[in-house]
Design brief:
By secondary structure, this protein is α+β, with helices and mostly antiparallel strands. The chain is 58% helix and 16% strand.
């Protein structure tokens, strides 16, 4: 009975993490050295991403009846799971950075904002810049025409001021 309680606690832990997650990514971590895994975990922690290795059966029970249920088809072999909370691209981006450095780390699949992506799809998601960078680019694109308009208006006003000064003399 105690073993069943332990397993239920693990399933509940995974479910709790899934409830707050904007994205979840499954990876195959086989072949990573301890140093590489430590580097990966450190970078994920810095990005605010939870990364953990659970048994596939526990993850299978946890994803049942959630938006992450399509991941159950990818729960074969060693699997690690990364939960991103604030920015859905944080986990995929950091994992992709490490995967490009260490070929042993491979994407399996992921769910980003309710949509399932296979390994190539998650790789594409990983290339999306962070939310803050996208917002700053958007605001910059809004600001550029406004700033140009303001310079034109200022130049017209200065020209009129020069013209009225010349007429007054």
């Amino acid at each position: 009975m105690a073993k069943l309680d332990q397993k239920q606690a693990v399933v509940n832990e995974i479910k709790e993490k899934l409830n707050g997650a904007a994205s979840v990514v499954l990876v195959d971590y086989r072949g990573l050295t301890v140093e590489q895994d430590t580097e990966l975990r450190k970078k994920l922690r810095e990005a605010g991403v939870d990364y953990k290795v659970y048994k596939n059966t526990m993850m299978n029970f946890a994803v049942k009846d959630t938006e992450f249920e399509p991941l159950k088809d990818y729960l074969e072999g060693p699997s690690a799971i990364a939960f991103s909370y604030n920015d859905p691209t944080n986990g995929p981006r950091v994992l992709n950075e490490i995967a490009s450095k260490y070929k042993a780390l491979e994407f399996k699949a992921g769910v980003v904002e309710g949509k399932l992506y296979d390994a190539p799809g998650i790789t594409k998601i990983a290339k999306i810049p962070p939310k803050e960078e996208l917002l700053s680019k958007l605001l910059g694109s809004f600001n550029s025409p406004i700033a140009s308009f303001a310079r034109v208006i200022k130049a017209i006003a200065e020209k009129k001021a020069e013209g009225s000064e010349a007429a007054a003399e």
